[in-house]
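Structure (tokenized):
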């Protein structure tokens, strides 16, 4: 017989509050980590560990403060831990350089926010076929040859569609930013 784990109302509220903050900022935290760690696999591992630490430490989080800077502080510690564990790597960075890179990564992540918001808005205007192309090529990371085979088209056609799609999205993003239409 299994016992059911039920949260108290306070724990449930705390969990929902955490999820709200976390889901809002998770992409920015991951982008920050990825800016400091060249390997996508390492960045995924560091993000996962960061997420666990955020949840474990959430009880200590002051809800009167902003969640994102707090989350970045924890992510930064996880990145530094990662680099310290790789001291044998000849490309290892020292702590002073990591501090500087960290500050620059935060600036890059925050500067990208309006562009990312515009991109999300522009993606909503795509056709179903264009959405499928974006999902397969950028989301699932399928090679153009596989997409071409699936669509019964040439690889050239897929690359041309990607080129047109990128240009269309870039123009849409630039237009939204220029007109101040960023959500």
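Design, position by position:
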């Amino acid at each position: 017989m299994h016992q059911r784990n039920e949260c108290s109302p306070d724990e449930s509220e705390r969990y929902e509050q955490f999820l709200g903050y976390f889901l809002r900022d998770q992409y920015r935290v991951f982008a920050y980590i990825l800016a400091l760690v060249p390997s996508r696999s390492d960045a995924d591992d560091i993000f996962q560990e960061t997420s666990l630490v955020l949840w474990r430490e959430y009880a200590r989080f002051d809800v009167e403060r902003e969640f994102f800077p707090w989350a970045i502080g924890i992510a930064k510690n996880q990145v530094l831990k990662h680099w310290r564990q790789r001291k044998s790597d000849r490309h290892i960075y020292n702590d002073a350089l990591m501090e500087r890179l960290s500050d620059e990564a935060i600036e890059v992540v925050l500067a990208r926010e309006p562009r990312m918001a515009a991109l999300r808005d522009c993606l909503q205007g795509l056709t179903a076929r264009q959405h499928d192309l974006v999902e397969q090529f950028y989301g699932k990371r399928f090679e153009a040859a596989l997409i071409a085979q699936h669509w019964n088209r040439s690889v050239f056609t897929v690359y041309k569609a990607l080129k047109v799609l990128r240009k269309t999205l870039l123009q849409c993003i630039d237009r939204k930013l220029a007109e101040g239409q960023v959500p």
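Reviewer-requested clarification: The radius of gyration is 21 Å. Helices lie at 9-36, 40-57, 67-85, 95-123, 128-139, 144-151, 155-179.
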